[in-house]
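Pilot study result, target chain (210 residues):
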Amino acid sequence: MSDTNFWLFLGAALIIAAIPGPGIFYVAARALSQGRASGFASTAGTALGGLVHVVAGSLGISAIILASAELFAAVKFVGALYLVWLGIKTFRSGGRVLPLASEPVGDTRAFRDGMLVEALNPKTAAFFLAFIPQFLDPAGASPTLQFIMLGAISVTLNTLADIIVVLMASATRTQLIGRPLLMRRLTQGSGVFIAGLGLSLALARRPANG
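Predicted structure:
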């Protein structure tokens, strides 16, 4: 890959990572409602889910899904239902928020949820297929390896942005943990927001050129 293509890609990827998107809002909601450990676990999960899309895109699997209205709808609605279910669970947990001192060090469920939420989002697949090929060098090394490399860099930058958001959200939660009623409302609001992300995904349309 040429240096020009790489630096153009890196600049564009940095800008995109800095723009708040559904992934950032999701991990923020998890950190606000369940604490920093859950936020970090969710971030690691969404990173792995993003890498799933990178590999699928490089192998042509994502293109097949986007080209089929039926496959796109199936993946989209499974992902949307999963988000709505997570939102409802978060909302219902609002009445039993754990004190800060009892937060777990890690959260396997949050990691799994984050991975599935990202992996089942066909809009992420559409983004990688629309964004990365613009910077591939046909005369360079294997386009597949180029795609994977650029995709991994993009996922890494997005993950760093998510980590910053988790730290900010968990700091906010720490300040509010001594106010049970406000924490309950915050957790319930996070649940509503996560469910809203699911409804937004359900309404997403397949790319016209898919």
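One observation from the pilot: Confidence is low (pLDDT under 50) at residues 99-106. A full batch analysis is planned for the follow-on phase.
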